[in-house]
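In this supplementary section we document a worked example of the pipeline. Step one takes a protein sequence of length 78 as its only input; no multiple sequence alignment statistics are reported here. Step two produces a three-dimensional model, which step three serialises into structure tokens for compact storage. The input and output of this example are shown verbatim.
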Amino acid sequence: MRRRAVLERLAATSDARARETTTVGALASALEADERAVEAHLNALIACELARRNAAGRVRVTISGEEFQELDLGDRVV
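The serialised model returned by step three reads:
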């Protein structure tokens, strides 16, 4: 699983403008991945301000994260 896959799924299941959130468990389930692995990727995305975690532990993509998804990066690894 790549970090970009986590960001893509997060962007598909949350909304920055509407502040809709999801859980780490839901992301892990959708990605068929271990929650700890998803959590590690989310922590990196949060550090880059592409994702945000609220006080209840729920996560969402940020506006920057949504804009990042719109970039045409081709096969570049990010």
